[in-house]
Design a protein that fits this description.
Elements lengths: L3 H5 L14 E3 L9 H12 L12 E6 L4 E6 L4 E7 L19 E6 L5 E6 L4 E6 L4 E7 L4 E6 L5 E6 L4 E6 L5 E6 L4 E6 L5 E6 L4 E6 L4 E7 L8 E4 L5 E6 L4 E6 L4 E7 L4 E9 L2 E8 L4 E6 L6 E7 L5 E6 L5 E6 L4 E6 L4 E7 L4 E7 L21 E6 L16 E9 L2 E9 L5 E8 L5 E8 L6 E8 L5 E9 L2 H9 L5 E6 L2 E6 L1
Parallel strand pairs: 30-36, 35-37
Antiparallel strand pairs: 1-20, 2-3, 2-29, 3-4, 5-6, 6-7, 7-8, 9-10, 10-11, 11-12, 13-14, 14-15, 15-16, 17-18, 18-19, 19-20, 21-22, 22-23, 23-24, 25-26, 26-27, 27-28, 30-31, 31-32, 32-35, 33-34, 33-36, 37-38
Length: 518
C-alpha cells in the first residue's frame, strides 16, 4: 500500500518554454463546483504529509532521446551511476528493418511505490517498465502511434499513456505488460496526469485547445475543459493538492492555468520561446512552480496563489534548452534536464541558484525523481552507453552577418547549432526563430580559414521558424552560417502545415527526410 509519505510527493513530470510578462487574461466562470468535488480535492490535499529528505536510496532518472538510454543518478552525491540501454544510439542500426530495440526514449513516470519506472519511446511506440531495484526491463508493450507521456494509476497496476498520432489513451498493464484498453479522448492527446486521489485523469492535446477529463474507474470522458491559451500543448503538471493544472503551450510561449475545482481556465501566462515543463514544489518558504524556458536557457519561478501566479525570479541555467523538471522528495532541490547540453542542473530552491550540473546520456527529455527507490549504493545492470559524449553548441552567423547564437532583442531572431557525436558521425541540429517566413536556407560548416562546406538546407514556416532540422555527417567546422536559397515550395509549406507548424524535427540523413518528435 502507498504510504502517506510517498503519497505526499507523488508528483507528475512535465515538458514546456517561455519569456515574457506574467498573467494575461481571466476566463469566464464555469458552473459551481459540487460539494462532493470540493470535499475530494480537500481530502487529496490532506493526504500530502511530511517531506522526504534526500538520501542515497533515492534515484533521479532522465530519458535520453538520442542515446536511447535512461540515465540513473544518485541525488545524494549528484553522480550519474550509469545508464540503462533500451536500444542503440541514434542512427546506428535504428534505421534497419530488422532493428528490435526502442527508439526515441522520451517520456518517464514513476509508480506510486517507486518500484516501477515507465519509459515511453516516441519513435518505436513502446512502453518499457523497469524495476528500480534491479534496473532491468520487466516488460515491453507496443502502444499507439507517437506515444508520448503518461502516468500510473493510484494503485500502480496500470499505466496510461497518450498517443499523439491517434485519438487514444493506451491503458497498459503495469504488472504483466500488454494493453488492457484503448480509450478515445479526442485528437492528438499529449500527456496523461492523474489527480492525487487517483479518481480522475487529465489529458492535454497537440491539436485541441482543451483538457479532457476522464473518470479512471469507468474509463469515460466526463468533462472537457475548453478555453486554453493555445491549441498545441506538449506538457502539463498537476499541483500536489490537485486544485491546479498548468498546461504548457511550447510553440506559442504560453501557460494555461486551470482551476480543477471548478474545471475552468483562470489565467493564461505569456511566457516565451519553447515553454517546456512546469513542475510544482512546496518548500518552507512557500508554494512554487518551476517552468523551463527552452528558448532562453532559463528556469522561471512562479509563486502560486489563489489568484494569478507571480513571477518571482528567472534562473539562468548552466546549459542549453532546459526541458524536463522534477523536485526532490523534500522540495529542497529542483532538477532540470538540459536537452542540448546532455546534463541536469541542480537548483537549490531556498536560494534559487544552480549549485551543480550533472552529466547524463544524450538529449535528456523527461526527468523524474523517486524517493527510496532502491538500496543505498545499489548499481546493478547499469552500463555506460551515451555517457562521455556531451553535445556542444557553436557560433552561428545569419545572412546579414550578425550573430545568430545571440537572441536579437528587437526581432527575436536566433539560429542555434548543436553538435553531438553519434555512432561514428556527428548529429548536427539547427533551430531557427524569426527568420524570413516560408524561406529555404542553406546551412554551411565554416572552417577556421573561412572555407564553407554545405551541411543541409532547411525551410522555415509561416512564422519564420524551424523548431529542428537534423543532419548526420562528420562535422569539423568552427561555426555555422546560413544564406537564403529560395522560397519554400507548396509541398514544403503543406508539410509544415501537416506537422502543425513544425512541431517536429525535419531530419535529413543522406537523401532521407522524415519527422522526429520534439
Amino acid at each position: 500500500m502507498l504510504s502517506a509519505h510517498r503519497a505526499a510527493w507523488m508528483l507528475v513530470a512535465t515538458l514546456g518554454a517561455g519569456a515574457g510578462g506574467v498573467a494575461a487574461m481571466s476566463m469566464a466562470q464555469a458552473s459551481p463546483v459540487s460539494a462532493d468535488r470540493a470535499a475530494t480535492v480537500k481530502a487529496a490535499g490532506v493526504a500530502r504529509q511530511h517531506p522526504i529528505p534526500i538520501s542515497g536510496r533515492d534515484r533521479l532518472y532522465t530519458a535520453d532521446q538520442t542515446s536511447n538510454t535512461v540515465s540513473v543518478i544518485d541525488p545524494s552525491t549528484n553522480r550519474t551511476l550509469g545508464t540503462i540501454a533500451l536500444g542503440d544510439q541514434r542512427v546506428g542500426s535504428t534505421f534497419s528493418p530488422q532493428y528490435l530495440g526502442d527508439s526515441g526514449v522520451h517520456g518517464l513516470a514513476i509508480s506510486p511505490d517507486h518500484r516501477r519506472l515507465a519509459v515511453v519511446s516516441v519513435t518505436s511506440n513502446t512502453v518499457d517498465l523497469i524495476d528500480t531495484r534491479t534496473n532491468k526491463v520487466v516488460s515491453t508493450t507496443d502502444v499507439g502511434r507517437a506515444a508520448h507521456e503518461g502516468s500510473f494509476t493510484a494503485d500502480g497496476k496500470q499505466f496510461w499513456v497518450a498517443n499523439r498520432g491517434r485519438d487514444t489513451i493506451s491503458v497498459v498493464d503495469a504488472v504483466h505488460g500488454g494493453v488492457i484498453a484503448n480509450l478515445r479522448v479526442g485528437e492528438g492527446p499529449s500527456k496523461v496526469v492523474m489527480s492525487p486521489d487517483g479518481r480522475t485523469a487529465y489529458v492535454n492535446h497537440i491539436s485541441k485547445a482543451e483538457v479532457t477529463v476522464v473518470d479512471v474507474r469507468s474509463h469515460r470522458v466526463k468533462h472537457r475543459i475548453t478555453g486554453l491559451g493555445a491549441t498545441f500543448s506538449s506538457d502539463q503538471a498537476i499541483s500536489p493538492d490537485g486544485t491546479r493544472l498548468w498546461v504548457s503551450h511550447k510553440s506559442d510561449g504560453k501557460i494555461s492555468v486551470v482551476d480543477l475545482v471548478h474545471n475552468k481556465v483562470v489565467t493564461v501566462l505569456n511566457t516565451g520561446p519553447d515553454t517546456n515543463h512546469p513542475q510544482f514544489a512546496d518548500t518552507p518558504s512557500g508554494k512554487y512552480v518551476y517552468l523551463t524556458m527552452g528558448g532562453l536557457d532559463e528556469t522561471w519561478v512562479y509563486r502560486r496563489a489563489s489568484g494569478a501566479p507571480t513571477l518571482v525570479t528567472k534562473i539562468k541555467n548552466h546549459g542549453h534548452a532546459p526541458h524536463g523538471a522534477w523536485a526532490s522528495g523534500d522540495g529542497s532541490r529542483m532538477y532540470i534536464g538540459l536537452q542540448k547540453s546532455d546534463a541536469v542542473d541542480v537548483i537549490d530552491t531556498a536560494s534559487n541558484k544552480v549549485i551543480d550540473t550533472i552529466k547524463t546520456g544524450q538529449e535528456p527529455q523527461a526527468l523524474v525523481y523517486a524517493p527510496r527507490a532502491t538500496t543505498a549504493g545499489s548499481t546493478p545492470n547499469l552500463g555506460r552507453q551515451g555517457l562521455g559524449q556531451q553535445a556542444h553548441n557553436i557560433r552561428t552567423t545569419l545572412p546579414d552577418g550578425s550573430a545568430g547564437d545571440t537572441l536579437d532583442p528587437v526581432r527575436g531572431r536566433t539560429l542555434e547549432a548543436t553538435i553531438r557525436p553519434v555512432s561514428g558521425l556527428d548529429m548536427i541540429e539547427l533551430q531557427a526563430r524569426a527568420l524570413k517566413p516560408n524561406t529555404v536556407y542553406q546551412a554551411y560548416s565554416v572552417a577556421a580559414d573561412g572555407k564553407k562546406t554545405p551541411v543541409r538546407s532547411f525551410p522555415t514556416d509561416a512564422n519564420g521558424n524551424t523548431p529542428g532540422a537534423l543532419a548526420f555527417d562528420a562535422f569539423d567546422g568552427e561555426s555555422i552560417s546560413i544564406q537564403v536559397k529560395g522560397q519554400a515550395t507548396p509541398v514544403q509549406k503543406a508539410a509544415f502545415a501537416a506537422q502543425g507548424s513544425m512541431h517536429g524535427h525535419a531530419v535529413k540523413t543522406a537523401d532521407l527526410l522524415f519527422c522526429d518528435c520534439c
